[in-house]
Write a sequence for this structure.
């Protein structure tokens, strides 16, 4: 089924009508305001010792474009310079940086090794210099730049782009089968001793980030990667599974170690606050050149038994959000470790991308969206609102705004004013229209250059084919690369019917 394209809605009233037709509750202002007009998006933020100049945030985005040793290339540097030119005052981690080699999500992911410390410092400085060039020498006083630290766990591909080398927290009844892990292969499962060693490597990477000039680190805990997976390790024996204290122990030990070893460094957590069961294309509606709409993978037996391993949803119904545990984890980290900086997302790009990254066109290994993508946007916005109401004294960054396209500033302004969220995060939009926040805040026509992300998902499809990530339709550099035709052909077979 083809859903209503956002680009076909020419006015804010038509956008509101479309929301109403889907029974969606989402505030949106008539017109975006500039900073001079006292836009809520121009208001500053403070968290612990950090000073953040406005309510725009750049999400971390990998480009599959580092060196084999995990250092940045010219493409990496260009992307980080665009982050600096964006006008966003909160740069959430830049991109995921693996804390050790076997945790890389691809063989060209950045790596927090001693040999790369100077390169990471340079990368941050290039972002800061670009911000100064765009906005003036005093603009860095309220610019906050972090580094995201990760281990990719189940989705590690450290040596070959086409081969998973998973390290997992536990055997998952569906994901093991989905990604080719034998239920009897315990070599992939990290022992408690290996987990403790990995905790130390996260702490070492955070110390490196501090020396490199980053103001905070993000301990990545989302999208099915290792930190996220531990939160659903109900049946894992030992110290790192079982009840919520056990399942959050990996995250809490990393944060405690960073607090002890790098006390000047702030800490954030990007958290998948809910997850769904995996989805797959409906085989009855798929053809050789079309993917059917997504349907839940065969989890019925597990649902009936009431023991499906999932975080942020009911175990007996893993399509129903239950935010009690995510709220409790946030409270634990606030009360025990003074963490007050959270970036909330959902799901995983590997097995349920329509809830994680709503898009009109699916990635090449995905499925047609089973719902209007606006439903996925509003689902995440409301989940974050509920968490903000429960834990009002932490700073929350929201996700799933890029699909709103020309109406993003209207909604972002309204949800910040209403107190639903503290900061609005944008990801793939920055790859095509990296200066949009700056244009909005100075009152410019942000639609005029026609660079808004239309969610073709090429930035995801490219890496699925082993090539670098970027906006192939709208960024001239990527549009002229030889890989662009390959990505275009992959996309052409995935158009909605």
């Amino acid at each position: 089924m083809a859903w209503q394209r956002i680009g076909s809605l020419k006015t804010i009233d038509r956008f509101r009508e479309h929301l109403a037709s889907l029974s969606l509750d989402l505030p949106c202002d008539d017109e975006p305001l500039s900073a001079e007009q006292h836009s809520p998006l121009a208001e500053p933020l403070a968290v612990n010792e950090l000073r953040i100049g406005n309510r725009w945030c750049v999400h971390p985005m990998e480009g599959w474009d580092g060196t084999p040793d995990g250092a940045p290339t010219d493409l990496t540097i260009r992307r980080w310079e665009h982050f600096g030119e964006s006008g966003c005052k909160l740069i959430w981690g830049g991109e995921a940086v693996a804390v050790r080699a076997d945790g890389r999500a691809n063989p060209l992911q950045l790596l927090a090794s001693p040999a790369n410390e100077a390169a990471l410092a340079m990368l941050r400085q290039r972002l800061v210099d670009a911000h100064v060039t765009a906005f003036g020498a005093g603009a860095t006083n309220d610019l906050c730049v972090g580094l995201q630290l990760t281990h990719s766990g189940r989705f590690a591909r450290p040596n070959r782009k086409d081969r998973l080398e998973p390290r997992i927290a536990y055997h998952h009844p569906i994901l093991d089968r989905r990604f080719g892990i034998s239920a009897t292969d315990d070599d992939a499962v990290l022992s408690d001793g290996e987990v403790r060693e990995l905790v130390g490597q996260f702490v070492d990477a955070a110390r490196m980030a501090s020396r490199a000039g980053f103001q905070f680190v993000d301990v990545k805990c989302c999208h099915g990667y290792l930190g996220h997976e531990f939160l659903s390790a109900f049946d894992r024996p030992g110290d790192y599974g079982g009840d919520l204290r056990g399942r959050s122990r990996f995250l809490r030990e990393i944060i405690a170690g960073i607090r002890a070893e790098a006390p000047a460094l702030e800490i954030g957590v990007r958290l998948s606050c809910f997850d769904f069961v995996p989805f797959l294309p409906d085989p009855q509606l798929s053809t050789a050149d079309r993917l059917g709409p997504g349907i839940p993978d065969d989890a019925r037996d597990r649902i009936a038994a009431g023991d499906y391993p999932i975080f942020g949803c009911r175990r007996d119904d893993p399509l129903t959000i239950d935010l009690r545990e995510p709220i409790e984890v946030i409270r634990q980290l606030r009360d025990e470790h003074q963490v007050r900086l959270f970036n909330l997302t959902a799901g995983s790009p590997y097995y349920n991308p329509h809830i994680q990254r709503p898009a009109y066109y699916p990635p090449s290994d995905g499925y047609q969206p089973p719902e209007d993508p606006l439903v996925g946007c509003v689902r995440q916005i409301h989940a974050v609102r509920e968490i903000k109401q429960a834990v009002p004294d932490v700073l929350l960054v929201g996700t799933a705004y890029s699909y709103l396209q020309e109406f993003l500033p209207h909604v972002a302004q309204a949800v910040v004013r209403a107190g639903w969220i503290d900061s609005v995060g944008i990801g793939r939009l920055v790859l095509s229209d990296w200066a949009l926040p700056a244009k909005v805040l100075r009152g410019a026509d942000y639609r005029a250059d026609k660079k808004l992300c239309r969610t073709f998902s090429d930035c995801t499809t490219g890496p699925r084919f082993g090539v670098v990530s970027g906006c192939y339709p709208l960024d001239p550099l990527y549009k002229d690369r030889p890989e662009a035709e390959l990505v275009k052909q992959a996309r052409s077979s995935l158009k909605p019917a």
Remarks:
- The first strand starts at residue 45 and ends at 47.
- The chain has 18 helices and 15 strands.
- The mean pLDDT is 94.
- Residues 192 and 237 are 9 Å apart (CA to CA).
